[in-house]
Amino acid sequence: MNKFNFFLLVPFIGILFSCDNNDKIIPPNNNCDKELIMSKDLYENAPSDPLTIESTELNGNCLTINFYAGGCDGSTWKYELIGDPRSILEGPVHHNIRLSLEDNELCEAIIRKEVSFDLNPALSSENLVILTLTNNDEEIVYDLNK
User: PROSITE patterns per the record (predicted)?
Assistant: First the structure.
């Protein structure tokens, strides 16, 4: 075996043996509209214009949120689901998340939206992850065993 092949083979072997059979591999959910953003800075500083969450539904790794806010037609709204990467220290992995809305529309109509978010950025190899949606204090329990 020449030196070139040897140097290509060593990193491959390292990667092969670095995987733990107990690690949970959670495939991304490409059916979601957007992806959860885990950022302490954005969690604390992203826009927080008024909105009301009507309902949430967890389907696999995808969280669907139905919400409404005042506006003209919602076409200019900017919204993201943002999580605080700092975990609450007691018990299972637990992150606070919030729906951030930037609403610069000057109309007063009630506009409803449904949007879904891939939760993979907040999930870990733990079997149980709790996400608290701070807009309405709802706890979303993600259990890999179910």
Answer: PROKAR_LIPOPROTEIN
Mean pLDDT of the chain: 83
d(CA 133, CA 67): 13
Residue of higher predicted confidence among 128 and 91: 128
Burial of residue 95 (number of CB atoms within 10 Å: 0-12, 13-18, 19+): buried
Q: Which domains does the chain have, with CATH numbers?
A: 32-143 (2.60.40.2370)
Q: Residue 38 and residue 12: Cα distance in Å, rounded?
A: 30
Q: Which pLDDT does position 3 carry in this prediction? A: 52
Q: Measure the CA–CA gap between 119 and 62, rounded to whole angstroms.
A: 6
Burial class (CB in 10 A: 0-12, 13-18, 19+), 140: middle
